[in-house]
């Protein structure tokens, strides 16, 4: 580690990763944003899924100020962050084959929709089958993952494949295997993960692209405003009502 304090080193590492995805993933971000815009324009619905800490970036895209109102969370009980006790059960469920098919079978996903699947490693059965089965339904899939895992680890899915192998578009977060940016001689394990920062930024970059593409086509993007600004709640009620048949987080 350099002479800079660990906090500064971590922020520098995160900035370097953000610059890499900005420059190296620009075409993929543009393609993913256009895919979402096409889906919105064609009457489709938008969904996001992630397991474990990867679910944080998926949740960040749902029902938030400045985000697309049509983005719905595809939640799997027990694998959304640390919503289950013990927390290790969530990690175990990610490796269970067949679970994704059951979830999709009871979900509103249908042909013509778009699904963002977030998985840092992309090696477990749940995200692999989520993408694989969704595409079989006629759903377009955007994968957000670290491609490095596909070359430095082995798949935990029976097919031997990774999430990246079953997506229409792949966004590579560039996160190193192990998801820890710092090391120290006096600390026995690497620390300071940056995957949430980078993955959230990638998804918000895709959202920004989708909104711009829709606007360029003369279509008002279905965006939400902050409920803490004057007029925000009224704006949101209008948008939520207009798109109520494509929103599943509101009764």
UniProtKB/TrEMBL annotation:
Belongs to the UPF0309 family. It comes from Streptomyces ambofaciens. Pfam families: SIS_2. This is UPF0309 protein SAM40697_3035. PANTHER family: PHOSPHOHEPTOSE ISOMERASE, SEDOHEPTULOSE 7-PHOSPHATE ISOMERASE / DNAA INITIATOR-ASSOCIATING FACTOR FOR REPLICATION INITIATION. Residues 36-220 form the SIS domain. HAMAP family: UPF0309 (MF_01240).
């Amino acid at each position: 580690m350099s002479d800079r304090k660990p906090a500064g080193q971590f922020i520098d590492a995160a900035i370097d990763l953000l610059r890499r995805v900005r420059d190296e993933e620009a075409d993929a971000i543009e393609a993913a944003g256009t895919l979402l815009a096409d889906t919105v324009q064609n009457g489709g619905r938008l969904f996001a899924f992630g397991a474990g800490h990867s679910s944080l970036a998926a949740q960040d895209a749902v029902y938030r100020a400045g985000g697309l109102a049509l983005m719905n969370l595809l939640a799997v009980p027990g694998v959304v962050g640390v919503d289950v006790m013990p927390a290790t059960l969530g990690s175990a469920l990610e490796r269970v084959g067949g679970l994704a098919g059951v979830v999709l079978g009871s979900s509103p996903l249908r042909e013509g929709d778009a699904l963002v699947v977030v998985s840092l490693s992309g090696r477990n059965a749940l995200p692999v089958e989520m993408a694989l089965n969704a595409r079989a339904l006629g759903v377009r899939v955007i994968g957000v993952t670290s491609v490095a895992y596909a070359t430095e680890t082995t798949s935990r899915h029976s097919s031997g494949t990774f999430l990246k192998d079953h997506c229409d578009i792949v966004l590579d977060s560039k996160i190193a295997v192990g998801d820890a940016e710092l090391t120290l001689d006096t600390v026995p394990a690497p620390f300071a993960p940056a995957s949430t920062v980078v993955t959230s930024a990638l998804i918000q970059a895709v959202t920004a692209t989708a909104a711009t593409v829709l606007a360029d086509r003369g279509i008002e993007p279905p965006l939400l405003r902050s409920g803490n600004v004057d007029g925000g709640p009224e704006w949101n009620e209008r948008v939520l009502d207009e798109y109520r048949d494509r929103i599943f987080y509101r009764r």
